[in-house]
Design a protein that fits this description.
CATH topology of the largest domain in chain A: D-Maltodextrin-Binding Protein, domain 2
CATH architecture of the largest domain in chain A: 3-Layer(aba) Sandwich
Structural class of chain A: alpha/beta
Number of domains of chain B: 1
Strand order of the largest sheet of chain B: 1-2
Number of helices of chain B: 23
Distance between the termini of chain A: 40 Å
Shape of chain A: globular
Radius of gyration of chain B: 22 Å
Distance between the termini of chain B: 54 Å
Number of helices of chain A: 14
Helix content of chain A: 40-55%
Largest interface: A-B, 61 and 58 residues
Number of strands of chain A: 10
Shape of chain B: globular
Oligomer: heterodimer
Strand order of the largest sheet of chain A: 2-1-3-10-4
Largest sheet of chain A: 5 strands, mixed
Strand content of chain B: under 5%
């Protein structure tokens, strides 16, 4: 709570100044003298919020800050960095974002805080981030759904041009996903058996997804198409993951794609069974579960990813700095511990250019896939 | 039996270490605080503290987060009773009679009964978790879309019972609530309904803005209209803090019934726990000898729902601990916290990590005791709050409402929506339309639609699915019986009579 308040305070301060001033060029270079002046100025300025201070003190404080601002700034980052997460607290992406921001905070020596802006498949968060001042203090951490599928499927609903206004900072994590089948009244026990069963029983197999246009729906439909036109019934779940797992457990739905972490309890209880895993190689904990490529569908890239984004106009040197900070965080022993225990895969090491190429490839692939299964969402 | 005792001893030995007692206390204090502040819910708080748990022992982290969760359940009733502000779905019905009691100068008694009822429910449901986790989890698992739909039908009919005025108005309010619930994105097609092109409405209208608007803000407007003298009359009436003997006599059976109802409904993932306090209130009113007392400060109307929501909050741990299925967002966060420590909640947790499981169970009981100790002395302070001149108090309430509503999803439109529903709430008061049935319709409508459509998809369009499944059939029969009782002319006459008195 306290951190949030301080953050809000500093943000306000930042806005007030930038409102009044033409931005000074070259904020990254400064002399020790200016630094002292700045500290003095900031110290006095904070007093504004102390209700007991009288007005003249306020005025002096304000002038001091104006002076400090006019002469230059401390190097980036000199105030807290806001990271928008397009979900309510509690989901996998939110949790990954919270652990990452904690590491980045240590690396940059500056507060980094998460602000949840859920809703509209991530459009609310993306638009707020894209429209924010491109100064490196407003970032976003999104995932395959909000920053991969939404820009492809819901481009018409966005008031921004995603490809033009948003850029990637770094890949943060890949999450392998299982293709799960229920064990309740559902005979197939392997992926091959499933394909044969679905072929022999058109319209009888029900698959669950988080809703129209979710990655589960798209991946299942791609699979159905490439396996020679399987006919399956789509059952959407507004509440998402927990509802899908629950209904998979009692056999009301038969199959779905799910990240490898959350269903572990259900797998151990024998209620659901992983048929294949979408990952580069088999998972150490599940040596018997083949990869989707081994099962004959190398083109299906169902793995979920999480990545960090910034407004496109953010200065390149700041984006580079942020990329390095996030990459360093991803390689830290703490994050690797979390990746391992959470069943996630650390992003491959690479430069900012690598990340950009990867995102371009990812977006192209999803556009092709949407075309292939002819997916259209209603307005 | 011997196993249970040795397990419980193990649990208490874990939970009673000074460090874990400290974490339980911190959790309970934070939980009480956020429960009292309207709108700032346990979800956001637990999310903020999540990275911290990485540096703690898993069991300590879990004890603290759990303390926040049920601490908020205790605290939420405080604002509902004192200033008619429900911060959570579960405290909406507490407003109905709890705030009436406060108006009659019985705020202390209402708060004490709420705290004692919650403590009792917490103890009983903790015991239930210790004894019956695996079989109870199975009950939850047998609930699918058809069962949920039938449960919602039952709930909506019960919503009519919630109202104590005209039955026509109650039905109209339920339908109005259902219509409000339609706003948002259609899950099956991705189409938008009644969003007027506003992207922030794509996920529907939030519960918190609506609840705080119609209850809290509406009440404030009504109070301000009423004028100074009448308000100070309410303040002068505060007499004794402790419930009277008669009130205890009425409250304890209600507490028992609420605990039983809440424990069962809490096990159901999703909508179950939401329903528990509504269900308990409707049940109390239905079996009361004189239902017309409800809505005018009936103590059972506080005791029943308050114990039900606490029992439901505790038993919602069962599907989480036994199957890794989160029943609500806080449970999902706790699974996240455990996952980071390499622990996957599931049936194996009880055997592989008995210290974690039983330590958690034991800490629930300790946490409930702590909450009782924290909350009972606070009652005096809360009641003093009512003596603050209303012209000062209402500003503070409005401020906290605005902050609380904003922080739910950091969206300014939610604050505007709250203001609009505040005006609507005042109009409801003027027309003597009760908002509780509307809120129940608003909460249940979308769940009902989703489960109806899902059930029909599962059955391939065959409506017999609702009759073929035994649990679903049972719930539908119960709904039909309830409907007949509501429709009976004799009872209706009594209702009209009650309406004319009021």
């Amino acid at each position: 709570m306290l951190e949030n308040r301080i953050a809000a305070l500093r943000r306000k301060q930042g806005h007030a100044l930038q409102f009044k001033l033409v931005r000074t060029p070259g904020p990254f270079i400064q002399s020790p003298n200016e630094n002292k002046r700045l500290q003095r100025g900031q110290g006095a300025y904070r007093g504004e919020n102390d209700m007991k201070r009288i007005r003249p003190a306020l005025l002096i404080a304000f002038c001091l800050v104006l002076a400090a601002e006019a002469y230059g700034q401390a190097p980036y980052p000199n105030k807290p960095i806001k990271v928008i997460v397009p979900y309510a607290p509690g989901g996998l992406t939110d949790v990954v974002a919270r652990y990452f921001t904690e590491q980045v905070r240590r690396i940059l020596g500056q507060a980094v805080y998460v602000e949840n802006k859920p809703g509209a498949s991530g459009i609310i968060a993306i638009e707020e981030m894209a429209r924010a001042r491109p100064d490196g203090y407003t970032l976003m951490i999104g995932n395959i759904s909000t920053n991969g599928l939404t820009p492809v499927l819901l481009a018409k609903k966005m008031k921004i041009d995603y490809d033009r206004d948003v850029q990637i900072i770094a890949r943060l994590a890949d999450v392998p996903v299982f293709f799960l089948a229920t064990t309740t009244d559902f005979p197939p026990k392997t992926f091959a058996e499933f394909l044969a069963y679905a072929k022999a029983n058109p319209g009888k197999v029900r698959f669950g997804s988080a809703g129209a246009g979710s990655y589960q729906q798209i991946n299942t439909e791609v699979l159905a198409k490439r396996a020679g036109g399987l006919e399956m019934v789509h059952i959407p779940f507004k509440e998402g993951g927990s509802g899908i797992l629950h209904d998979l457990g009692n056999g009301d739905i038969h199959v779905t794609w799910f990240n490898v972490t959350n269903p572990v309890g259900m797998i151990k209880a024998g209620r659901v069974r992983p048929l294949v895993v979408a990952a580069p190689q088999r998972l150490a904990q599940y040596p018997d579960v083949p990869t989707i490529a081994e099962a004959g569908f190398p083109g299906i890239k169902a793995a979920q990813w999480v990545a960090a984004f910034a407004p496109a106009a953010t200065p390149p040197e700041i984006v580079e700095l942020l990329h390095d900070a996030f990459a360093k965080a991803a390689a830290s022993p703490e994050m690797n511990d979390i990746f391992q225990k959470g069943g996630m895969i650390a992003p491959p090491p690479g430069t900012l250019a690598d990340a950009r190429n990867w995102l371009r490839g990812e977006m192209t692939m999803w556009r092709q896939v949407a075309e292939e299964i002819n997916l259209r969402l209603e307005d | 039996m011997y196993d249970l005792f040795s397990n419980l001893i193990l649990g208490f030995s874990v939970a009673m270490t000074p460090a874990n007692l400290g974490f339980a206390l911190v959790g309970c204090l934070v939980g009480t605080l956020i429960g009292v502040l309207p709108g700032i819910g346990p979800v956001a708080t637990v999310a903020m503290l999540l990275p911290l748990t990485f540096y703690l022992e898993p069991v300590s982290g879990l004890i603290m987060l759990a303390g926040i969760f049920y601490g908020a359940q205790y605290g939420g009733s405080t604002t509902a009773i004192l200033v008619n502000l429900p911060g959570e779905t579960s405290s909406v019905v507490t407003c109905i009679d709890g705030h009436q009691m406060a108006k009659q100068g019985r705020a202390g008694a209402a708060l004490a009964i709420a705290a004692l009822g919650s403590f009792f429910a917490g103890c009983v449901s903790t015991l239930l978790i210790a004894l019956f986790s695996p079989p109870l989890a199975k009950v939850g698992q047998s609930f699918g879309a058809p069962e949920y739909f039938s449960l919602m039908v039952l709930g909506l009919i019960a919503a009519v019972v919630l109202a104590h005025g005209s039955i026509v108005k109650a039905v109209a309010m339920v339908i109005f609530g259902l219509l409000l619930g339609l706003v948002g994105t259609d899950g099956n097609t991705g189409g938008q309904r009644f969003t007027f092109g506003l992207i922030t409405l794509a996920d529907g209208i939030g519960f918190v803005p609506v609840a705080i608007g119609v209850f809290g803000v509406g009440e404030i407007i009504a109070n301000l209209v009423r004028g100074e003298e009448q308000r100070s009359l309410v303040q002068a009436k505060i007499t004794r803090l402790w419930p009277t003997k008669e009130e205890f006599k009425l409250a304890w059976p209600a507490t028992l019934r609420g605990t039983a109802l809440g424990s069962i409904l809490g096990v159901l993932p999703g909508g179950g726990a939401t329903l528990s306090s509504f269900a308990a209130y409707a049940f109390e009113k239905k079996i009361a000898r004189d239902p017309s007392r409800f809505g005018r400060g009936a103590i059972e109307g506080v005791a029943g729902p308050e114990s039900a929501n606490n029992a439901g909050a505790q038993t919602s741990f069962i599907p989480m601990l036994t199957l890794g299925l989160p029943g609500n967002a806080v449970m999902a966060l706790m699974i996240g916290a455990l996952t980071i420590h390499g622990i996957q909640p599931g049936p194996q947790v009880m055997t592989e990590r008995p210290a974690l499981f039983w330590g958690m169970v034991a800490s629930m009981w300790i946490g409930n005791l702590m909450l009782l100790v924290i909350n009972l002395p606070l009652i005096g302070i809360w009641v003093q709050l009512l003596k603050v001149p209303y012209r000062v108090l209402y500003l503070a309430i409005l401020l906290f409402c605005a902050i609380g509503v904003y922080t739910v999803s950091n969206n300014t439109l939610d604050v505007i929506i709250t203001a609009m529903f505040g005006v609507l709430g005042y109009i409801f008061i003027k027309f003597e339309c009760e908002p509780a049935p509307m809120l129940l319709g608003f909460v249940l409508g979308p769940l009902m639609e989703e489960n109806l459509r899902r059930a029909m998809r599962i059955s391939g369009g065959d409506p017999m699915i609702f009759v073929n499944r035994p649990i679903s059939l049972g719930l539908l029969v119960a709904a039909a019986v309830l409907l007949v009782i509501v429709m009976l002319p004799a009872i209706r006459a009594k209702r009209e009579e009650a309406f004319q008195e009021g």
